[in-house]
Amino acid sequence: MTQGRVLAVARHGAHRFSKPLALSIRLLEGLGVEGDAHCGATVKHRSRVAQDPHQPNLRQVHLIHSELFEELATRGFRVAAGEIGENVTTQGIDLLALPRGARLHLGATAIVEVTGLRNPCRQLDAFQPGLMAATLGRDAQGRLLRKAGIMAVVVAGGDVVPGNPIRVALPPPPHEALERV
Prior knowledge:
There is one protein chain. By secondary structure, the protein is mainly beta. It has a single domain, classed as Beta Barrel (M1 Pyruvate Kinase, Domain 3), CATH 2.40.33.20. It has helices at about 45-50, 65-75, 125, 130-135, and strands at about 1-10, 20, 25-30, 30-35, 60-65, 90, 105, 110-115, 135-140, 145, 150-155, 160, 165-170. The strands form three sheets. It has a seven-stranded mixed barrel with strand order 1-6-5-11-8-7-13. The chain has a three-stranded antiparallel sheet with strand order 4-3-12, with no helix packed on it. The longest helix is centred in the middle third of the chain and has 8 residues, at about 65-75.
């Protein structure tokens, strides 16, 4: 098991781009972050609700690695925890390299299961012009890389606070690479 830590937590009860930082968040099994606009068993993202409001919510918790903020800073962007909509800002874990089904143990009891990648959207450019392109890249084979974090569902509830350790448990092989959800 690899280990990192929770750097910050955030939530917002309305559909807003940025989320204010919180002293703690409570994860609810099968639902997401208590008090967050994306909390629920069925999809809450407005564009996905318009397509089919009954599809399962695979985007209950949004996690971003703080190392992305450092990378963006080298390109002239100033981004802080919560500002691009994540619920949990992590440190010390390569979130983008995790396979689908990896489980992140956050603090004493909370567990989330990784479902896929966040698809960067144009709201990033409204926040800071050029930010969307900065969160995209290409690998050595020319495949599109989405770097704006990962999405997860809550499999065990609990409180999460900054400073909590994060333990990663990988699913049995073969591992499936993350796709956008």
